Amino acid sequence: MSDTKLNYIAGAWVAGDSEIENRNPSDVTDLVGMFTQARADQLDLAIEKAHAAQREWAAYGLERKQAVLNAIGTEMMARAEELGTLLSREEGKPLAEGKGEVYRAGQFFTYYAAECLRQIGENADSVRDGIEIDVRREPVGLVAIISPWNFPTATASWKIAPALCYGNAVIWKPANMTPASAVALTEIIAKQDIPDGLFSLVMGAGGAIGQRLVESDGVNAVSFTGSVPVGRGIAATAIGNFTKVQLEMGSKNAFAIMDDADLDLAVTLSLGGAFGGTGQKCTASSRLVVHEAVHDAFVEKLVAGAQAMKVGHALETGTQIGPVVSEQQLSENLAYVDLGKSEGAELACGGVRLDMPHDGFYMSPGVFLGTNNAMRINREEMFAPLTSVIKVGSYDEALSVVNDTKFGLTSGIVTKSLARANHFRRNAQTGVVTINLPTAGTDYHVPFGGRGDSSYGPREQGKAAAEFYTTVKTAYISAGTPD
Questions:
Q1: Which residues pair with 366 in a beta bridge?
Q2: Over the stretch 42-70, which tens digit does the pLDDT of each residue have?
Q3: Distance between CA atoms of 34 and 348, rounded to whole angstroms?
Q4: What is residue 452's DSSP assignment?
Q5: 91, 115, 248, 460: which one is catalytic?
Q6: Residue 40 CA to chain centroid, in angstroms?
Q7: 11 burial class (0-12, 13-18, 19+ CB within 10 angstroms)?
Q8: Distance (Å, rounded) from C-alpha 459 to C-alpha 49?
Q9: Which among 11, 81, 128, 428 has the fewest CB atoms less than 10 Å away?
């Protein structure tokens, strides 16, 4: 196991009893590496050591913590091309997206480095004479972070950075499909001025290591991004210990194109929103709700645009859509294509496995026409390069279709009407709303999260992150009377 990448536990790189292969979905003959799997006793050690390390870290001066987070973010940005290439190689997203993800992840750390200095409490006079009140936030303690494979560096970073900023310890269990990016980020964090045990990386299966992590009464909070069924299971388990939870889960995002829309803009935004990252985004535009007055013209341009997109190896110049992440994911995607057809939808283009020069999991972007909001392809998250067009007769019908879902992460509209845009912004029942912008793409300094089955618990990112990663203490002080 000398070439196997190790877990980082309690300040040391350690091997487990087993290992897994990590192969490039663009070319399965390319072995990215071998990665050890943590044992239960190693996870228990990480939890045990984290508490003392957290108390030490919380006592660090603000500028000392700031320097740590700033160093992590600065190195990530400086190495964005190298680490982005690694990310694209193991996950399959086009190289430009991989490099952009790493750079943006670095910005999360530098943002929260600055937030280290902005942790300012509140004070008030009591309703009782001679008493003053001090309100401030303190670390929640040990945070378990369980991150997904589709944004292996960015999603983890927007959890790890605020956790450390607000004085917590972290145990990170990344997705087993993208361990190389996890090890690379951990190597950067491990060499910083932090106590041994403050940050641990435990790679392993969700049903084993992940489950044991959320079951532990030594964990004070769990931040998870992934599927709804797994999120429900985590919530049900965590409540037994009254563990704080933050869950980002599924979506079925709708993008409304109105009769006054700039169609070229609408098509560009729809293609990027639906097929960027091979459709493997929780913010993907998987339902295109189109006004009947522009439906035919929009569809013609959309299908032509989808057919023109270049599917290829993630690291090749000009690739717009890389492979899906795995053989299993590809099989699930193709099953949704068959389901859509069986429901009566017309597959206007794509939706098939592609034979390519490299042996990978390639799929052409697919567009369903003639769909309605009752179809399963418009109710369930597909996580695929597939999108459905739903024709509507009015703005009111469009808004109704947008809101007719159990999810509520993002939604968007393309319109030239300020009144319509304003009404949509106020009445779309999603945590994120976009106007003349794609449903995918968010900033790191403002809250992110959804409603319904999309999210549970406090928002992520920006100053809103403090709500999850801290706990509030209210102190009453009587100074007595002066002599």
A1: 386
A2: 999 999 999 999 999 999 999 999 999 99
A3: 41
A4: G
A5: 248
A6: 26
A7: middle
A8: 28
A9: 128
409, 253 contact by CB (below 8 A): yes
List the end-to-end C-alpha distance of the chain, in Å, as a whole number. Answer: 73
Identify the DSSP state of 448.
B
Domains and CATH numbers, the chain: 7-249+445-475 (3.40.605.10), 253-435 (3.40.309.10)
Q: Tell me the angle at which helices 62-78 and 95-115 cross, rounded to the nearest 10 degrees.
A: 170
CB-hemisphere CA count at 13 Å for 294?
22
Reported as type and span, the H/E element at residue 289 is: strand 285-291
Phi, psi of 96 (to 5 degrees): -60, -40
Q: Who's near 256: CB < 8 A, 6+ residues apart?
A: 289, 290, 395, 398, 399, 402, 411, 412, 413, 414, 415, 424
Distance CA 162, CA 465 (A): 7
State yes or no: is 248 an active-site residue.
yes
Strand (E) or helix (H) holding 167: none
155, amino acid identity: T
Catalytic residue among 115, 282, 381, 460: 282
Residue-wise pLDDT tens digits, 351-386? 999 999 999 999 999 999 999 999 999 999 999 999
How far is 223 from 239, CA to CA, in rounded Å? Answer: 14
Distance of CA 452 to the CA centre of its chain: 17
Tokens 């993800």 correspond to 101
Q: How far is CA 2 from the centre of its chain?
A: 32
Which amino acid does the sequence have at 251?
S
Measured distance CA(179)–CA(182) in Å, rounded: 5
The HSE-up count of residue 269 (CA atoms within 13 Å, CB side) is 27
d(CA 389, CA 288): 5
Residue carrying the six token digits 């002080």? 477
Global confidence as pTM: 0.95
Which element (helix H / strand E) includes 87?
A: helix 80-91
